[in-house]
Amino acid sequence: MKKRRANDDARTSPRATGAHRGFTLIELLVTLAILGILASLALPVAQIAVQRQQEQELRRALREIRSALDAYKLASDEGRIAKDGGSSGYPRSLELLVEGVPDQRSPSRAKLYFLRRLPRDPMSDATHRDEAATWGKRSYASDAAAPMEGDDVFDVYSRSSRVGLNGVPYNKW
Known about the structure:
Shape: elongated
Pfam family, one: N_methyl
Radius of gyration: 33 Å
GO cellular component, one term: type II protein secretion system complex
Number of strands: 4
GO biological process, one term: protein secretion by the type II secretion system
Oligomer: single chain
Number of helices: 4
Protein name: General secretion pathway protein GspG
Keywords: Coiled coil, Membrane, Methylation, Transmembrane, Transmembrane helix
Strand content: 5-15%
Order of helices and strands: HHHHEEEE
């Protein structure tokens, strides 16, 4: 009879009936450790994805501005833009690409526009500056190794001192 009671007690115990179902402390700690490891692996991947997106935006912006500078120079060489005697033919400022310049060949002096809007340097941390101030500018008279501003804008570069995923500093792109 004693054996029967022991069996009855085993059948009616909380473990046997499932009344206390749940996770043990060790199971919870193992689960949290696994989640922590997965999160620590995902964070660098997310940071690289953000950096890669900024780099693509920088490439696009540089290509857009440089194409507009080349188009301005071509229009200047064709005589469509008035230029001073000793001028290089490049714009005096980046804003001229957006504001437009009078077309010398047009009877109504319609404006030539080279950009719809000036893109901001995506690597710049200066959100309070206007778009043109976020870019470094190189004049036609300055050396490529030591770009300096001057009377015109021959090229633009990022002012960021950070290094890209390809190992090249952004200001050398």
